[in-house]
């Protein structure tokens, strides 16, 4: 999906997003990093289709979006189970998967509690369960490292991999830069409403071809490695000629 020159502000307030242009492709995991108030949640809501930009366009939004807000709106009379069952019915999800997901995120014992009695982290789990009942094409996680307990945080990379394996994509907001080691990870830095893509792991490395006299190969390899470079391959020079 693509965002082109997206501008957002609340009422007549200052611009929160200023000309954001970016894309998320199938197989991508994008972490949006920026300080508190940088506009991360606003950007996630635009991507989710919950907030319409004042200017600019959002195109090719995937059909099925799972959105897990940082603060799940838990001030409701339902128990978690009743809420999830009702939501599943309205959306045509399989309510049978609620128990399975509750177990995966260590929520089974809290299913029959009223939503309003849940802590922030437990309420965020209700958000995660509803987002995953039918595997989303785009999973959006707002600050998952903040509210969720350590056990459930360990499930996040597993869930991300499942979404990717099914051809999906994932967008995560993360004010402390804790999102690491996820497959296909890209990072967007959001500052003063402007978005910049940080250089990814692949962009940090280049391959330099060097011809070395055969008699000096061992010495050259030692020299390169001692300088912290990685020697990828050694081959005859003729292989290189057209
Ligand atoms: N509904 C709203 N009405 C008015 N201003 C808002 C609203 N939501 C967010 N803002 C303002 O927009 C700016 C960006 O907020 P946003 O929540 O998108 O940032 P964030 O990077 O997600 O911050 P945090 O890490 O604290 O959640 C802030 O100045 C915030 O006060």
Automatic annotation (TrEMBL):
InterPro entries per the UniProt record, alphabetical: AAA+_ATPase (IPR003593), ABC_transporter-like_ATP-bd (IPR003439), ABC_Transporter_VariousFunc (IPR051782), P-loop_NTPase (IPR027417)
UniProt xrefs under Gene3D superfamilies: P-loop containing nucleotide triphosphate hydrolases
Keywords assigned: ATP-binding, Nucleotide-binding, Transport
Molecular-function GO terms, alphabetical: ATP binding; ATP hydrolysis activity
Residues annotated as domain ABC transporter: 1-217
UniProt key word Transcription regulation: no
Pfam families xrefs: ABC_tran
Record SMART domains: AAA
Protein name, per record: ABC transporter domain-containing protein
